[in-house]
From TrEMBL:
Region of interest: Disordered: 95-123
Name of this chain's protein: NDH-dependent cyclic electron flow 5
Basic and acidic residues composition-biased segments: 96-106
PANTHER family, A to Z: APOSPORY-ASSOCIATED PROTEIN C-RELATED, PROTEIN NDH-DEPENDENT CYCLIC ELECTRON FLOW 5
Ranges of Acidic residues composition bias in the record: 110-122
Any single GO CC term annotated in Swiss-Prot or TrEMBL for this entry: cytoplasm
Domain of life: Eukaryota
Coiled coil: none
Length: 161
């Protein structure tokens, strides 16, 4: 049995996965957390507490899906406007896919996708957009955005791997 609970408070968003093994055989569970964080600028953003954590660079998956807002038909009544709107959104996809292919061929970051790395510093400035999979993340780390004068603490409890 699996239960997934999400709790939203004034300054806290928590998620909890409760697993109950109703059978007689052992279960092996693996987990991950996917998060997206908007910051004022990469140059003003720092991650604190990731030193010694292993990671892989992993570009976000390409997708041909589109989320269309519920009031889309009201905003764009004529087919010509809808077509123009969708064309504008979709036009970047083929160039993005080509760029990813070109970077992989030229030895850019995408070609390092299978190379495991380790964070060397405890206080790392995030100088560009990044997408990483941490295989040995700490139980707690903080992202500081000096531009917005805010910080976000990511943590986990009770899920020891």
């Amino acid at each position: 049995e699996f239960k997934y609970l999400i709790t939203l408070q004034q300054d806290l968003l928590s998620s909890e996965l409760v697993v109950t093994n109703m059978g007689s055989s052992n279960l092996q569970l693996m987990g991950s957390i996917l998060s997206h964080l908007e910051v004022s600028s990469p140059n003003a953003t720092y991650a604190v507490g990731l030193q010694g954590s292993s990671y892989f660079n992993k570009p976000p998956p390409m997708s041909e899906f589109l989320i269309v807002p519920p009031n889309f038909n009201e905003k764009f009544r004529s087919n010509a406007k809808k077509s123009q709107f969708l064309e504008g959104i979709l036009s970047g996809w083929s160039s993005r896919e080509q760029k990813s292919t070109d970077e992989a061929k030229s030895g850019g970051e995408l070609s390092e996708e299978g190379v495991e790395r380790e964070e060397g510093e405890d206080y790392a400035q995030l100088t560009e957009k990044m997408s990483r999979i941490y295989t040995t993340a700490p139980t707690k780390f903080t992202v500081i955005d000096r531009g917005r004068r805010t910080s976000v603490v990511f943590g986990r409890r009770g899920f020891e791997e």
